[in-house]
């Protein structure tokens, strides 16, 4: 009797070879395995997934923090004393790291879906650890230098939450294919039950997440108020050096209705405009007065201050990445800018019939104008010929002497304290104020200005919230936002929310039923019904025959000398002959 073992026919699996080769350096068929992955490799998969989530959060943070990139570099400058644009290396490393980790995660998911054993190559393990450590060190550094900026995550969710909800549903629905394939196996384990329970909880939490959303732009269109007035914060510092005449002129040309400036008093009593405590960053003082570059700007006289160039630094450092977009004429004009005095800015605003917001830095006690700074500033206002009703003064000190001028504060105060102090307006950072706070202030007729607002998404949130004015480094950008980026009625959003949840749940249930049906069919399948005729059906170019075996056994005497085995198929079969007999 002759027993035949079917030919083992293997097709070329180029895609599988690429997946296992890139992920685990297993390019050959014999290197691959469909056995269960070891606990060590499962741990590496968890580390890979955790690294992806951490990097995704990190990338999202920097995406929304673009609104404050200049403030980040300014914070670094105050810590180190050197101006460097650190956002470029951060964005580059984040993009590279996220792309690398995402690619490895996709390969790992392909392994799971194809039933292949996870076996991460050691080079990738080093890469994952290096990426993870770099990201963690970035978190620690940002928390130390720029810790308040984490709050922008919560602010941005007012704008992005509905879209993140849809994206999360799509992701969790897609992952159900892998989860279902794992939990519907014939063998049962406590870990499978735990995986299923976690998945169901995540899906339910995601479906109910919109109940926690606070999105100002989910509102009826007829309730929408007029757009917030735009204040040029230090002019238009993306188009010209901050706190210069050219910067304020560009702000007015691009639709700013008001101007905001930082005021410092010189040693001879001339108010001038500068943000920093020193002249190092925004002037060429290292060339003109190299021995005094670390000296406080207020201890220079106006003649010395006015002799410094305040434009070359802008062209060299390109703080907003906008220099290349400027014309040659504008760059030439920027190169000749000097520090602007308060009277120059006020006269410019008066000619344009614009209001101004002044952030005045009081001189130090040892400064010669410590006792007269207030009168110096007030005399400058009178000299400029601007109406006092057009001037808002901060901080809210010397209230007894400030008559006819509007006063504002950068402190977040209760309505009762605002009335007690006699303040008419607040100027608050967007991180300090919530949607509920805005509604309380507006209900009590408190004028509110929010800063810094440089991105359309943040401008849209504040517009929908009813904020009357915003202070911006980018008036030229906000002017091009004629309507909130998105606006949706409550009924429309509820329909989208409920519909997407129902579709997601239905698809997940369908996937689980299909996986269960497929596993049941495989368990009931009879292998003896398989007829392998691949050699007869396919050409040699399509099939790679890796192995051919025939197992023979004879009940009597076995094979004799006249027995002949032919390995050449005749009409698609392998023949065996014994004497004159042929099988």
UniProtKB/TrEMBL annotation:
Q: What is this protein called?
A: Glycerophosphodiester phosphodiesterase domain containing 5
Q: Where in the cell is it found?
A: Membrane
Q: Name one GO cellular component term.
A: plasma membrane
**Keyword Transcription (UniProt):** no
For this UniProt entry, the molecular function terms from Gene Ontology, in alphabetical order, are: glycerophosphodiester phosphodiesterase activity
Any Pfam family the entry gives: GDPD
Q: Which UniProt keywords apply?
A: Glycoprotein, Hydrolase, Membrane, Transmembrane, Transmembrane helix
């Amino acid at each position: 009797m002759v027993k035949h073992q079917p030919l083992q026919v293997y097709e070329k699996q180029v895609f599988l070879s690429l997946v296992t080769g890139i992920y685990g350096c297993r390019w050959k068929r014999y290197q691959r395995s469909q056995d269960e992955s070891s606990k060590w490799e499962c741990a590496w998969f968890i580390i890979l997934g955790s690294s992806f989530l951490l990097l995704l959060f990190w990338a999202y943070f920097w995406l929304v923090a673009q609104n404050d990139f200049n403030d980040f570099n300014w914070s670094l400058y105050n810590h180190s004393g050197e101006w460097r644009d650190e956002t470029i290396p951060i964005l580059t490393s984040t993009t590279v790291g996220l792309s690398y980790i995402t690619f490895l995660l996709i390969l790992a998911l392909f392994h799971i879906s194809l039933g292949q054993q996870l076996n991460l190559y050691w080079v990738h393990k080093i890469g994952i650890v290096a990426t993870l450590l770099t990201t963690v060190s970035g978190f620690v550094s940002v928390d130390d230098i720029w810790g308040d900026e984490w709050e922008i995550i919560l602010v941005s969710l007012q704008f992005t939450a509905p879209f993140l909800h849809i994206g999360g549903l799509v992701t969790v629905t897609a992952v159900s294919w892998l989860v279902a394939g794992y939990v519907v196996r014939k063998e049962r384990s406590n870990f499978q039950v735990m995986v299923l329970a976690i998945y169901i909880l995540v899906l339910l939490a995601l479906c109910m997440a919109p109940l926690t959303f606070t999105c100002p732009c989910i509102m009826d269109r007829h309730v929408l108020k007029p757009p917030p007035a735009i204040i040029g914060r230090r002019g238009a510092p993306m188009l010209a050096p901050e706190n210069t005449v050219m910067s304020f002129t560009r702000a007015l040309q691009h639709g700013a209705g008001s101007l905001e400036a930082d005021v410092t008093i010189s040693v001879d009593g001339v108010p001038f405009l500068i943000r920093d405590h020193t002249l190092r960053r925004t002037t060429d003082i290292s060339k003109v007065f190299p021995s005094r570059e670390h000296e406080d700007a207020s201890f220079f006289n106006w003649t010395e201050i006015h002799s410094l160039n305040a434009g070359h630094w802008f062209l060299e450092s390109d703080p907003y990445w906008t220099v290349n977009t400027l014309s040659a004429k504008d760059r030439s004009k920027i190169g000749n800018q000097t520090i602007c005095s308060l009277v120059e800015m006020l006269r410019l605003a008066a000619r344009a019939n614009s209001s101004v917001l002044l952030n005045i830095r009081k001189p130090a006690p040892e400064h010669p104008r410590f006792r007269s700074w207030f009168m110096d500033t007030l005399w400058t206002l009178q000299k400029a010929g601007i109406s006092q009703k057009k001037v808002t003064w901060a901080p809210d000190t010397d209230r007894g002497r400030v008559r006819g001028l509007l006063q504002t504060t950068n402190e977040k105060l209760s309505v009762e304290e605002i009335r007690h102090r006699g303040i008419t307006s607040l100027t608050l950072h967007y991180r300090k104020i919530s949607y509920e706070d805005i509604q309380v202030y507006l209900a009590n007729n408190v004028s509110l200005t929010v800063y810094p607002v440089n991105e359309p998404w943040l401008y849209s949130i504040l517009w929908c919230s009813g904020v009357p004015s915003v202070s911006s480094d980018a008036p030229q950008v906000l002017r091009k936002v004629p309507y909130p980026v998105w606006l949706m009625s409550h009924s429309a959003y509820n329909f989208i929310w409920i519909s997407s949840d129902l579709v997601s749940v239905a698809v997940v249930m369908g996937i689980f039923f299909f996986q269960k049906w497929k596993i049941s069919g495989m368990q009931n399948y009879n292998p003896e019904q398989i007829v392998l005729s691949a050699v007869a059906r396919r050409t040699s170019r399509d099939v790679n025959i890796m192995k051919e075996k025939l197992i023979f056994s004879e009940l009597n005497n076995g094979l004799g000398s006249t027995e002949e085995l032919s390995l050449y198929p005749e009409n698609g079969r392998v023949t065996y002959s014994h004497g004159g007999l042929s099988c």
